[in-house]
């Protein structure tokens, strides 16, 4: 019983001491890092909005895996990209997108991405192809975005990016602690409708531009029906080609 009384008395003294300390507690101090937290939140809001615009307004989004890419090397890569000219036909498309006004922004954008912010943007997007980027959004990534899809321009960009990274990798000495940089294409979304993995990029860069495709299509549609049927047969459109051939014979048969 004496032990119980002593324990109860000690507990009461502790409670009185805690209450007294609480009454005399000082106002919490304000530190500079607390202001930086607020600014970081604003930064995240800005980046989230930026990623939304890039996803919605870019015909090409290409993600890259990054390893040991420091800021000087990143700046050198951006400088190389800035010197790559975009074909005139694609520049004309940029003018069309801009309502007929000259396009004064760079035709491409390359930057490190915050995957934690890009992930919800892709997850809530209406496009299935954009949503499929989700599993790729982890680790250190960079993103190349272009408002218009230009296969030729993309090929030039990839070659320009490889030059400074390859030069830096050639001078890296793992024994001295200098790690080998890596900047490798991972996956792309084309026109917000198709997911293209890295192994499909070489074929993508060899496609003709939109102006060439339009001229080829126009020539195809204006060709005589017999020539059109032959072209479709060569393209393995056998059933459709046979239908067009039968229709041609019907038109040529006198009533």
UniProtKB/TrEMBL annotation:
<comment type="similarity">
    <text>Belongs to the universal ribosomal protein uL10 family.</text>
</comment>
<protein>
    <submittedName>
        <fullName>Uncharacterized protein</fullName>
    </submittedName>
</protein>
<dbReference type="InterPro" id="IPR043141">
    <property type="entry name" value="Ribosomal_uL10-like_sf"/>
</dbReference>
<dbReference type="InterPro" id="IPR047865">
    <property type="entry name" value="Ribosomal_uL10_bac_type"/>
</dbReference>
């Amino acid at each position: 019983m004496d032990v119980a009384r002593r324990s109860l008395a000690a507990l009461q003294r502790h409670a009185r001491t805690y209450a007294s300390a609480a009454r005399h507690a000082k106002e919490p101090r304000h530190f500079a890092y607390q202001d930086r937290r607020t600014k970081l939140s604003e930064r995240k809001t800005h980046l989230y909005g930026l990623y939304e615009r890039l996803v919605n307004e870019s015909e090409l989004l290409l993600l890259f895996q990054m390893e040991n890419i420091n800021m000087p090397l990143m700046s050198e890569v951006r400088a190389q990209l800035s010197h790559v000219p975009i074909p005139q036909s694609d520049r004309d498309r940029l003018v069309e997108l801009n309502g007929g006004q000259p396009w004064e922004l760079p035709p491409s954008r390359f930057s490190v991405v915050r995957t934690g912010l890009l992930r919800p943007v892709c997850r809530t997007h209406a496009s299935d192809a954009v949503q499929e980027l989700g599993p790729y959004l982890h680790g250190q990534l960079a993103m190349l975005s272009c408002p218009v899809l230009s296969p030729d321009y993309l090929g030039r960009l990839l070659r320009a990016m490889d030059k400074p990274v390859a030069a830096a990798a050639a001078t890296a000495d793992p024994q001295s602690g200098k790690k080998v940089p890596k900047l490798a294409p991972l996956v792309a979304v084309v026109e917000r409708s198709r997911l293209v993995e890295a192994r499909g990029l070489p074929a993508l860069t060899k496609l003709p531009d939109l102006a060439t495709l339009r001229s080829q299509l126009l020539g195809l549609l204006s060709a005589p029906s017999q020539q059109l049927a032959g072209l479709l047969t060569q393209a393995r459109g056998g059933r459709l080609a046979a239908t067009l051939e039968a229709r041609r014979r019907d038109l040529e048969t006198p009533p």
